[in-house]
Amino acid sequence: MRDYRTLLEQAMGGSSTAFEELVRRFQDHALGIAMRRLGDLHLAQDAVQEAFLVAHLKLPTLKNPDSFPSWFSRIVTRCSIKLGKDAAKHRPACGLDHIDTLADGHPGPLEIMTRFQDRAMVSRLLGMLSGMDREVCVLRYQHGLSYNSIAEQLGLPLGTIKRRLHKARNTLVKLREQETGRVTRVGCLPISDHLLAMVAQNQNPPNGQELRTRRFLSWPSLIEALRNDTLDVAFIMAPLAMELRAKGLGIRYVLDGHHDGSSITVNSKDLVNNGGSWRRQGTWALPYRISTHSMLLNHMLGQDPVPYDPSPTAKYISPSYIIRSLRQREVDAFFCSEPWGTRSEAEGTGRVVARSRDIAPGHICCIVVAREAFAKHHGGMLDDYLQRLREAGRFVRRRPETAAAILSHHTGVDQDISRQVLAPDRVSFEDLTPTRDRIRATMGLALESTVIEKSCDLDSFLLSIS
Fold it and tell me: Which is more confidently placed, 180 or 133?
């Protein structure tokens, strides 16, 4: 096994693989620090994700590799304190929203426990269970024992333990829902395209509805949460939502999340060396294989009259980490949502050379989807949330300075950059009602560029069509 110092040196040299291994090794340590500060896993996870992002961006400033553990611990502590102060102003709802994913190993006992509001609630809800169900839950959730250990301690078959836990967690979810009332679980990424989710979270909830918006740093993690039914609503790229729907995931398209808002950023030095030509970059960073950006890039390259030889290659990198890949020369250009292109330009490492609206005017990028079961059984809550999103769009237009501050808070970029990103000619949060023509045109682009394998039935995908 490589020493962490070796991994650190490789990460500082630009190896994303080495940094991913550092994340794997230090994530439990970081979570422990954050949990001691915050006492809530949802907040602690956010703090850890934020800390790894800060560490990733600040690695070049670390002078002594031996001091990495203490240096990183201080970053985690600062991020935890910051999130704790913010949470005190507007504490998101907590719940047993992840408990139904335990059977496949996600999440662990610690996460299950700390998603309760407090220990008193834990004891109260566990006390409502029957004897054996309560016993296996205490051993699993409070003592953190494995299935095999519980079976051995109680002298029961492993299958019995799993069945007991399955029954108990369903009961706990129902009890938790009774305790918390109206909770809507929302997923988004820290990108300008998802600003409405951030703004809506900051507003006072109507009609007693609780809203918990969870930030994800990558598309795969958001997809996993949708598949595990731990989100009710998600902001997601349209081609990706179409692909998931076509493959059987029960989601419905309920609103456009925004229009436009992405940019192509090229290494500044390469742009000078290539005489200003930016289309023939060798390696492109994209946020995900099935993405709006893959679709638009393939469409753009397909329109070029001069064949590309060799063909450009793609690396798939989470938006929050994409600037570093350009800075470290792992890629020659990236295409993703703002504010990362504008930030790269501000720091002098990249130059924004094109915007998504220049490639395919009127295309749909990120949309809002709802789980079918949530839409069916909690239609009123969904309507309330969609109304909040529309109000958030009007808020962005009326109060751009405050909207920029919210974007800055959730993405970590300077507020001046956020102001630039939210200029009316960069991204729009108006006219968000889904229309058949727009979604059909976007699906056509996705099929033409082979980003999705087959078409999606629009009549079953759209919850309402104007």
Answer: 133
For residue 192, give the H/E element and its range.
none
In a domain, 94, yes or no: no
Residue 394 covered by a domain: yes
Report the predicted TM-score, pTM, of the whole model to 2 decimal places: 0.66
Q: How far is CA 409 from CA 29, 203, 215, 414, 415, in A?
A: 25, 15, 12, 9, 8
Per-residue pLDDT reduced to its tens digit, 296-348: 988 887 765 444 444 678 889 888 788 888 888 888 899 999 999 999 999 88
Do 8 and 76 reside in the same domain of the chain?
A: yes
Secondary structure string (H, E, C) spanning 350-419: EEEEEEHHHHCCCCCCEEEEEEHHHHHHCHHHHHHHHHHHHHHHHHHHHCHHHHHHHHHHHHCCCHHHHH
In the sheet that holds 210-215, the strands lie side by side as 210-215, 183-188, 233-237, 366-371, 251-256
Q: Please give the share of the chain, as a percent, with pLDDT higher than 70.
A: 80
> What's the whole-number mean pLDDT along residues 89-101?
35
The DSSP annotation for 82-140 comes to HHHHHHHHSPPP--STTGGGGGGT-S-HHHHHHTSS-HHHHHHHHHTS-HHHHHHHIII
Q: Is the pLDDT of residue 364 over 90?
A: no
The verdict on 341 and 210 lying in the same domain is: yes
Identify whether residues 104 and 82 lie together within a single domain.
Answer: no
- Do 361 and 317 belong together in one domain? yes
